[in-house]
Every structure is written in C-alpha cells, then in structure tokens.
C-alpha cells in the first residue's frame, strides 16, 4: 500500500513536488480516444484487423473519463494559497480557449468547403462553450464535436474556486466518504436516466456537465487526501495491473452500467499511484521525455484528431467505406502521425505563446524553508518547488503555463 506521509508539526512547504508521470499518462488517455474514433469511423475494412482495433479500443471513449478525473486531481494538487478566483479563471481560459478558437474557426472553414449547413445558434453555443448544456440531439456535438468536453471543463473550473475552501476544511472522514460515494453516484446514473426522456438519455449520462463533474470531484477529493498525507492505495505496478484486468473484463463481459464505475475507480488508482511514485522519487515508466512531450501536446491532439480524420476521409471519398487489407491500419497510423504533427504545431505556436501572453503572471515564489523531514515522509523526488502538479497537467494543460521540461529541450 502506498501513502504520502503528513508532517503536521512542520510548516507547510512552499510547493508540492511536480508530477510528470501524470503528463505522460495523458497521452495514453488521448490515444484511447483516438483509437475509439478510428474504430467507429470504420477506417479498417479487413475484419481481422478491425477486430484487433475493436478489442483494444472498444472502451476508448472512457479516456475522457480519465481526463476529467486527472483534471480534478491536478488542479487541487497545484492550487496555491492566495490565488484569487479571478486569477484562477483567467489562467484556465488562457490555457484552453486559444486552441478551442482556432479549431472552431477551422471547423467552420471545413463546413464551408463541403457546403455543410451550420446553424448560427449552434456555432455561437460552441464558441462560448455552452453546448454541453443543450440536450437537443446534435447540438452538444456541434462544430468541433470533441469540444463538448471543454464545455464540461469550463463548468468544473467555475465551480472549483468556490468549492476549494470547503474541500480544504473538510474532515478526513468526509473526504473518504466522498471517495466511496462518488463512484456509487456514477453507478446510480444508469437507473436514474429512466427519469429522463429517452431521446436525452445519452446526453444526461455522457454530456451533462453536473453529471460528468462527479469524475472531476473524485480526482479533486483524492488529491486533497494525498496533499494531507492520508491517501492509501496500491503502488503503480499493482494499480496498473488492476486497470488492465478491469479493462479486459469490462470490454468482454461487463455491462456499461458497471464498467463506467469500475473504470473510474481503476483510473483513480493509476493516477494516485503515479503521483505517489513522483512524490517519492520512485521509478515510473510515464516520466520519459518522449511521453512527457506526447502528454504536453495531447490537448491539441485531442482537439484536432476528429476534424482531421473526417475531413480527409470525406475529401478522398472513403468516408464510411474503409480501406481493404493492410491499407486500413496504414491509414490509421498515418492519421496518428499527421495529427501529432498538427498538435505539435498548435501547441508550439498557439497554446504555449498565448498562455504566456494571456495568463496572469505568478508572483515570485519564496525560497523553500529548510525543515526536518518526519520519519517516513517523502522528499520532493525528481521535482522542484516550481511546478507542483503543473508538470502533470490536466486535460487543459499546465497549471503554471509552462512545461517543467521546457528548459531541457
């Protein structure tokens, strides 16, 4: 069992250690979503090849679930005393909105090229990231379809500064009760959807921001327990094994009502175990420089991948037909590479410079105060005081607006 030990007698540290493993894990979640969409677009026509993709990525849509849990975890872990609500909200907008605006405009250009009808009201909803609140079929997937998750994230960001003081003051028993209750609430959504008109049930369980916030708060509560040194969970190897077993079982035998809850728990165990490994300076396969880069561009990758694939397939006349033989996997691999290149460019020339330009500057941090480490307490491991969980980054990127590895490139 792993834990982060508390040091109640010592003054608080100037910052928590970085969590770069969470950045690497973001790429795995983005890859799951990509594989799911590649499968549902039927790019691969060869049945044997398609069966492999379906087996690997049939639950890939749950990668968004991972992003939501990770977002709550990272933002609570990296929250700094003294940050105002306005500062927090401005930093979040500076991080995700420039990329969203570029893809919103690009999607409208593609729609114009293919002469697709665009409802002005739907375009406005998407521009303002309000589409996840609209239950009308098609509206919540309007314009750049994947941006519905940003609409949810905006709601999470609005709520977190209001709820964080309560979270900080909550007693441990209440936090542990929430860790148990939140997955049960996710499970309860399935019978609860019977109270919703059938046409809106997908929206209610998969899109509606207050419902999806259950995953965000699950990560947030776990981060608060870990900050206090109270979290107890399996190590990274065991947590990873639990995830793999859960994934295989869920894909083969478990109904959707159960696997959404089970995967939420499995994702949380992996996230906390990876964070604990970073805090303690233990080995983690997710801290390699290639994975760190992939994790940093994963937000841009997530935003571009569906638009690129659908546009190319429509332009080539291969939409819905699939590619025979080895050409199917080759096209999927080509899409993966092309989307990575575009994501790297978007991250380099839009996301990073706009974050630096628009986000409020953080005040200079005080030098760390020397203190005696309590028995069993972890050191900062490979991290330093600057990033906190910024190195891990949530779905929308770094908490402090720059990569902890930026100086090493």
TrEMBL record:
Pfam families assigned to the protein according to its UniProt record, in alphabetical order: Acyl_transf_3
Region of interest: Disordered: 360-409
EC number of the protein: 2.3.-.-
Species this protein is from: Micromonospora parva
Segments forming domain Acyltransferase: 21-347
Keywords: Acyltransferase, Membrane, Transferase, Transmembrane, Transmembrane helix
GO molecular function, one term: acyltransferase activity
Name the record gives this protein: Acyltransferase family protein
Signal peptide annotation: none
InterPro entries in UniProt: Acyl_transf_3_dom, Acyltransferase_3
Ranges that cross the membrane: 25-44, 56-77, 97-115, 146-167, 174-191, 203-223, 235-254, 260-279, 291-310, 330-350
Classification of source organism: Bacteria, Bacillati, Actinomycetota, Actinomycetes, Micromonosporales
Root EC class: transferase
Compositional bias segments (type: Low complexity): 370-382
